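Supplementary Methods, section 5.1.

A reviewer requested that the exact input to the structure prediction be made available. We therefore reproduce it here, unchanged from the version used in the analyses.
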Amino acid sequence: MPPTGHHFSESCIECRHRGLRLFCSLTDNSLKRLDEIAMHVVLPGRAVVFSESQDSKAVFIVCEGQLKLSASSSGGRTMILRLAGPGDLLGLSAILNHLPYEVTAETLEPTVLKSIRRADFLEFLQDFGEVGTKTAQAMAKEYREVFLDVRRLALSGSAAGRLARLLLEWSATAACGKPELRFTMALTHEELASMTGTSRETVTRLLNQFERDSVVARHGSSLVILNPDRLSQLAE
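The structure derived from this sequence is encoded token-by-token as follows.
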């Protein structure tokens, strides 16, 4: 089933989000072809879409839901690199370079995807010029996210600074221009620790401190940034 509380159309032409997301804002002819070549995939939370080092056979468009992208060392240590959400393309670099997937993609909640086989996607890219433009924009977006991740880990000297920057980045993405900085916290504290280069205990302590200081407010899995200026100061 699609994520609870969301109306989802299997057709890209009929999707109410088509004008809001990078790879969904194509012309009718392109979207019609996309509907023909894409397979509709619905997954529960904590399901693996593809694994690191697995042969890349398809690219995935995220329609609804949230996923984590992670990489592992030979010693078994795993690091979460970033989160992916609606409108993101997964496996794009691997497909274009004919290489195995660089990361593992795992859903954090019930998720809806469109899967496009490598050959079909490459033909789609060749036949529709605007798809090439959108693909380049998607690659640029992915590059920027990697850059922000490296900057967060390398330049934020404290655990509080790294966590503050991460919360600000997520809230800005979720806000989409709206004044309220609210998003769903789908990661566990241990997973947050992986993304900020610290421990689970430190993440728990910092979130509690942010809440006591009225910097953030938590309501279940929902987190609201109450004082973005203070978080920005911590992130500097």
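The longest strand covers residues 58-64. These observations are discussed further in the main text.
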